[in-house]
Amino acid sequence: MRIKYVSWKNIMNKNNWVFQQVELIESNVCLENPGRGWYGIYTFVVQDSINPEELRWSLRDGELLALVLLDISIYRSMQLDENALNNIRSILSFFMYYKKDVILRPVYDREGKGRECEPDSFEQVLEHLQQIGGLLRDMQHSVFIFQGMLVGSWGEMHDSRYLSPECINRMWNCMRQYLGDEIYLAVRTPAQWRTLRSEKEFRQKKYAHLALFDDGILGSMTHLGTFGTELREAAGWAQAWTRKEEMEFVNCLTEDMPCGGEVVACTENDRMYEAKFIVNELKKMHITYLDSTHDMKALDLWKSISWDGFDNLKIWKGYSLYEYIGEHLGYRLVVRTVELKPIRRGRAEFMFEIENTGFGRVFQETELFLIMKNRNETREVPISMDMRKIQAGTRICGKTVIKLMEGRVSLKLQRKKDGRIIHFANKNSTDTLYLGSLHCGKIYLSEE
């Protein structure tokens, strides 16, 4: 197929250097990028060891996230022993080996009996948090989100004797010292979040890696009690507010904190079946990750609804709502423009613009490289550009100075901590995105 080149505004220096850019178009390709997307749930009782060879067959293709649910109920009256800690280490090492980012949720209860299954002593809860936190601090793992604080039914921070402001603050202060720069701790409701961070800290965006998860998304207009009924003025900072006020709060917070959870089928409001309403709800929440199996009634409905391109992108017309949402969970980066400006002494400045068309953003540090390659030489030029600053629906520009050489020019983006490739959502993008070719003298169009 002949590459379609874009005329480069006749930019040449005295040595007749010319850059031929390929057409930069967004595609509808499925992107398996880290730190975003659909996840499955993997449940373990921590007193039992795992068989990695058997467990690997349960991993779901196309999902780079895994919610690892650790049942620690047998230890409700004692500390985790070395057997349990070693098993947790093995579980986390397994998911890291298979390149699955982990949403970690240790729980006492898996049957909706939070109060019955929790320790009788709150100090025991704190000790378990310290043990698990210390393990995360001292070993290599791929935990992205620490979800909940062990307590409540299903570990979802409701129906628990340990959810007073004092208890929540003590659990948070206990756990936050182990989070480091890579792990976010997520609580279940905005009101719980506000119990832990002041209004001043919120306004100053001092979020301290404290995020939200929502296991009642679209289950009702209040997301199954996630939101309240009182106006903020009457309720106060740390109580639940009306849906409108809570959604405004969540919209602001999740611009900079990851948010995800479970979608639930709703029977009380027909709007929950409208594609445009559903997508707008997820956009406001800047949803990064969703459960792929929790409520198949809701997900099957999404699969039956055709997305008619309400965002004016024809590339998604004819795709299902489920497919469209899946490809926009978290970040989706598209290179929009590229420009070359020769400077002097055989050097030039490359400038480009990247747009994030996803619902959320990148939350982990990345590395971006400009790659120049011909038959004799390959150069990788690091570019100082923080992808975490590209909010959903926005664009930022980057640039770097290069020493001119003939050959193909590409971009490569990877996660810093493990070198995992982050694919651009451009047409014909692979592990690198081909931008065009740089020539000195006569131009020869190539076939690919």
TrEMBL record:
InterPro entries the UniProt entry points to: DUF4832, DUF4874
One family name in Pfam for this protein: DUF4874
UniProt domain DUF4832: residue ranges: 210-397
Domain DUF4874, residue spans: 33-191
Residue stretches in coiled coil: none
The protein, known as: DUF4832 domain-containing protein
